[in-house]
């Protein structure tokens, strides 16, 4: 693994062309292991149109024959190095600084992408407004930003399936303990849902994102 992974700006999928973005809030889509920037882009019609949506490709290639890209290596279901998740988060932050500028930014990540979304909040607590974590988890260990997050408590939506057997139960339990302390948590466990996204979950995500837009509008008038 490269010590300093970076995102390729040429493969980012945007919902609108550059001349239409202005200072509109940006929602970044972070795909899961073995996928790419095209995967979550199919969610765009279900998301509030006020957001400019950008779907990025993770910087690493998983071992052959796994297709797509990955944010960090996985060595078995229990082999997830928090330091590698932090490297991915810092690569994302570097891309945000170059590509987004001063517009408000939120993150929506699935599985690995959800872990990176939370780690990005931890690495730079004021760089991102909120996070949506679908079938993801909080990486272990401690980061200096955790103290700031416990005070700031940014909004986080955490959705997961009751039948999801991909994320180890120990990580789910640790995330359930960590998130209420470090965020304004909302979320739901979906009966029968596996490691995937359901329409009920999308409806909840839409309500969460609409609430964030309402907060941004209120802040802009004060």
Automatic annotation (TrEMBL):
<dbReference type="InterPro" id="IPR050565">
    <property type="entry name" value="LYPA1-2/EST-like"/>
</dbReference>
<dbReference type="Pfam" id="PF02230">
    <property type="entry name" value="Abhydrolase_2"/>
</dbReference>
<dbReference type="GO" id="GO:0016787">
    <property type="term" value="F:hydrolase activity"/>
</dbReference>
<feature type="domain" description="Phospholipase/carboxylesterase/thioesterase">
    <location>
        <begin position="18"/>
        <end position="211"/>
    </location>
</feature>
<keyword id="KW-0378">Hydrolase</keyword>
<comment type="similarity">
    <text>Belongs to the AB hydrolase superfamily. AB hydrolase 2 family.</text>
</comment>
<dbReference type="InterPro" id="IPR029058">
    <property type="entry name" value="AB_hydrolase_fold"/>
</dbReference>
<dbReference type="InterPro" id="IPR003140">
    <property type="entry name" value="PLipase/COase/thioEstase"/>
</dbReference>
<protein>
    <submittedName>
        <fullName>Phospholipase/carboxylesterase</fullName>
    </submittedName>
</protein>
């Amino acid at each position: 693994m490269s010590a300093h992974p970076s995102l390729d700006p040429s493969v980012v999928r945007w919902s609108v062309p550059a001349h239409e973005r202005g200072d509109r809030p940006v929602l970044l889509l972070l795909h899961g292991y073995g996928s790419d920037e095209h995967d979550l882009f199919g969610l765009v019609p279900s998301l509030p149109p006020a957001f400019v949506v950008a779907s990025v490709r993770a910087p690493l290639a998983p071992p052959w024959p796994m297709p797509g890209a990955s944010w960090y290596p996985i060595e078995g279901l229990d082999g997830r190095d928090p330091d590698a998740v932090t490297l991915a988060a810092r690569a994302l932050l570097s891309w945000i600084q170059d590509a987004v500028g001063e517009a408000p930014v939120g993150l929506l990540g699935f599985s690995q992408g959800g872990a990176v979304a939370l780690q990005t909040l931890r690495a730079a607590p004021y760089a991102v407004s909120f996070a949506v974590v679908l079938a993801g988890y909080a990486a272990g260990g401690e980061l200096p930003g955790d103290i700031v997050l416990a005070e700031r408590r940014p909004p986080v939506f955490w959705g997961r399936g009751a039948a999801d057997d991909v994320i180890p139960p120990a990580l789910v339990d640790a995330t359930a303990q960590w998130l209420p302390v470090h965020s304004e948590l909302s979320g739901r466990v979906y009966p029968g849902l596996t490691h995937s996204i359901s329409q009920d979950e999308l409806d909840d995500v839409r309500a969460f994102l609409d609430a964030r837009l309402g907060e941004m509008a209120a802040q802009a008038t004060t």
